[in-house]
Amino acid sequence: MCSTPPPRTVFITGANRGIGFELVKQLSKLRDPPKSIFATYRDKGGAKELFEFAKCNESVHPIQLDVRETDTYAKVVNEVASVVGDRGVNLLINNAAIGNFGPGSVFEDTPKEKLLEVFESNTVAPVMFTRAFIPLLEKGHGSGNGEPFTWSRACVLNISSIVGSIAITDSTALLGFPYRISKAALNMANKLMSIDLKKRNILAVAIHPGWVQTDMGGPNARLSKQQSVSSLLSTFQKLTADDAGAFVSYDGTNIEF
Question: What is this structure's pTM?
Answer without folding.
Answer: 0.96
